[in-house]
Design a protein that fits this description.
The chain has about 525 residues and is an alpha+beta fold. It contains 10 helices and 27 strands. This is VWFA domain-containing protein.
């Protein structure tokens, strides 16, 4: 054993021999019997220390091999692109080639009795008797693995198993060093046999005036309390895309974190990325945190649900608030085409929305009733609604405009109407006044939301939606001073259902206010 240990210390462990046997197994009475193939694994050593990487830059700190003898091997095979369950096999030893050095090979395992076919060897890890990884076959992973260039044939390896044949396939392994876990192409919890706990992250980005957006970001996570610990994840990125309603929505990022005995700590860094959802930003690390496994487990909400870890970038303090001084104007287009929406809006204002906002008005019903109003107006001048029809109330203002079309006031119903069609004079006048007013308001004094009610998807109704999309993105004849793409105080909700329930409109308004940065 001493000779083996010295030899192992001087070289990177390598070359696992894959051996197949066969036995008969009946399939069914209608077909001929087929022979299954049985896989076993053996180990020899190969001198890799002086071999430069085939495709990677040579590393200076060659992982040292453990003194421990191999006790088990964990393998993962796949068939047809689907991973099979991991299989752990005991290791036996003998001098198989009579050269005086001990050879290692796996014991027989029923789990590796396989039908003839084509398989992929996806993972191959050798453990000592204490379940510590000592050798590992690197994965060819251009994203993270750096050690795959030190073997002739990195994983995955294709294995063709025929009935009744004995097939030998070499699997090269390297000595394992926990500090370089990602260099092998594996994740930490794939290698260390322990429980993984789920951790999900979601974030918002706020502009200086308090407007909230779903953040686009990347995350790095280390095991430990800073970025010198074991790397668990690198540059994992979420996405922010426009949904079917024309709103930008962000996806969370979810991770499996190793949960060993005792307390585990994880260090996370978040980098804010540019997105189509908000103005350009400097892409840099904007958030970091240290969490424990106990804190992560506290986010579990029942057996199968996990609450997101929320972070806000530039969203702390100074944002908009609703108080006794906040005026909320809920404008309703009463020109006739969406009359079925008025009653549930009024019911919502008197009940559900009141229940939500009343604490912000000091639980004073008179204050709420005076400050939160549903206003019917049939002139269809959306921008004039947003302009509070020229009012400048003391305190601060939120305008919520529900409208389905503005035919002939701002657009027509022609199928050829688009962003290149000439603007109306009323539109030009209303946009000029609104932009001037917005520029003069102090920070967080004013926010507005246009709710495009989708009475129909054709004619004037379709063109009103297009108009709002052109205005919000400053497109074509609605760019520059004729649009609102540079005014984050105004948000847009598309595809609103007409004549829906009071609960539907309450949820819609609460979501919109939350998106604007209000804490409800």
């Amino acid at each position: 054993m001493k000779k083996f240990k010295l030899f192992l210390m001087g070289f990177l462990a390598s070359a696992m021999l894959l051996v197949s046997c066969s036995k008969d197994e009946p399939v069914n009475e209608a077909t001929e019997q087929q022979e299954v193939a049985t896989l076993t694994f053996g180990a020899t050593l190969n001198d890799l220390l002086n071999r430069a990487a085939n495709t990677k830059q040579h590393f200076s700190d060659v992982p040292e091999c453990s003194d421990a003898a191999p006790a088990t091997v964990m393998v993962v095979l796949s068939e047809g692109g689907i991973d099979m369950d991991p299989v752990t096999i005991n290791v036996l030893s003998d001098d198989l080639d009579s050269d005086g050095d001990m050879d290692y090979f796996t014991d027989y395992s029923e789990d590796l009795e396989l039908m003839p076919g084509t398989y992929e060897l996806e993972e191959f890890i050798v453990y000592d008797a204490s379940a510590n990884p000592i050798w590992i076959a690197p994965i060819d992973d251009d994203d993270s693995g750096e050690y795959d260039g030190y073997v002739m044939d990195a994983l995955p390896i294709t294995i063709n198993l025929g009935a009744g044949v004995k097939k030998y396939v070499d699997v090269e392994v390297l000595c394992y060093d926990e500090r370089q876990v990602n260099e092998y192409g594996y994740l930490f919890f794939d290698i260390i046999p322990n429980q993984a706990i789920e951790f999900c992250v979601f974030g918002n980005y706020c502009t200086d005036n308090g407007r909230h957006y779903p953040a686009e970001y990347s995350v790095n996570i280390w095991l430990g309390t800073d970025d010198t610990g074991t790397v668990l994840y690198t540059d994992e990125t979420n996405s922010v895309e426009m949904d079917n309603n024309g709103d930008y929505a962000g996806t969370p990022l979810c991770f499996a974190l190793p949960d060993t005995e005792g307390e585990d700590q994880y260090y996370m860094e978040v980098t804010l990325l540019n997105s189509d959802a908000y103005p350009d930003v400097t892409e840099e690390v904007v958030y970091s945190a240290v969490l424990t496994d106990e804190e992560v487990r506290e986010m579990f909400d029942g057996e199968d649900a996990v609450d997101y870890y929320h972070f806000g970038i530039n969203c702390g303090g100074g944002g908009p608030v609703i108080s006794e001084d906040t005026h909320i104007y809920i404008y309703f287009d009463s020109s006739g085409s969406m009359n079925s929406t008025l009653s549930p809006l009024q019911e919502m204002r008197n009940t559900l929305l009141k229940q939500t906002l009343l604490p912000l008005y000091g639980n004073d019903e008179d204050a709420y009733d005076n400050q939160v109003r549903v206003i019917s107006n049939g002139n269809e001048r959306t921008l004039n609604f947003l302009n509070i029809e020229g009012e400048t109330p003391v305190g601060d203002v939120i305008v919520l405009a529900f409208q389905d079309e503005a035919e002939f006031i701002y657009h027509d119903g022609s199928p050829t109407w688009d962003s290149s069609t000439g603007r109306t004079s009323t539109y030009d006048s209303d946009i000029a006044i609104l932009r001037g007013r917005l520029s003069g308001f102090p920070a967080n004094y004013y926010h507005g939301v246009v709710f495009q009610v989708e009475t129909s998807t054709t004619g004037a109704y379709a063109n009103f939606r297009k108009l709002m999309e052109y205005v919000s993105s400053s497109t074509g004849n609605y760019s520059g001073q004729y649009g609102l793409g540079d005014r984050p105080e105004v948000a847009y909700e598309y595809g609103v259902t007409p004549g829906a329930s009071a609960q539907y409109y309450a949820d819609l308004i609460v979501d919109a206010l939350t998106g604007l940065g209000y804490s409800l």
